User: What shape does this take?
Amino acid sequence: MEIQQKKHLLKEILNKHTPLLVAYSGGVDSSLLAALTQDIIGKGNMYCILVNGPELPRREYNAALKTADDLHLPLAVINGNPLSDTLKRENPRDRCWYCKRETYNILASAAKEHSCNFIADGANASDLFEHRPGIDAFSSCGVIHPFIMAGMTKQDIRIVAKEMGFSFWNKPSSACLYSRIPYGEIITPDKLSEIEKGEDFLIGLGFSQVRVRHHGTIARIEILSSEIELIISCREQIHRYFRQLGFTYVTLDLLGYRSGSLDEMLPS
Assistant: This one.
């Protein structure tokens, strides 16, 4: 299907689901969905909710607020902690499913408050080829996925965002901080802080796409393959900083950045 056909189908989908509450995170997908929803069905027929929890990096939170302001989105921020302490200790491989189920409860309450009959998220067709139990959780609650329904991939979304002149079209992919900790290993505030500080430090050095995977005393850094020479040139500075954070060993993943690399340990 051509991208113009997908856009037309997306418009039909949004027009059929109004008034609509958008689960907004500030990423490329949810930002474009919010912008298109506002354009297509009107600001009076939509609302955006950003759930602010410990899994959301502060840099992403601040960027999300700025994007919402730039787009003049009707947005409310709700502080929440969707993952229970028990699940943080167990950190099961379907952790995202439970987290999304609780997030849904927050969104459903907000939808009722703002008189929205439907809830939508920015999941796209490319996500269907990855381990994304959160999509199943949202679907089971009745959340719709307009981009998936229209057959739009991550690349399609970036193309449309660029065509529309949105500055976020090439924003690096983001994910919650929990995704940096291997399944079965306890999630703690200290680990989340170490991960976030490490990633902020690397981004400050000029790296565009960064993940710091937390393996106990080992930090496994993922960056774009094209930036490996850069990280080698400042390896001593990086090593010193990560040692200060509490890591004993600081490693570079030679395969580079890839979404959901911790899912590679799961059975096929």
Summary: The longest helix spans residues 95-113.
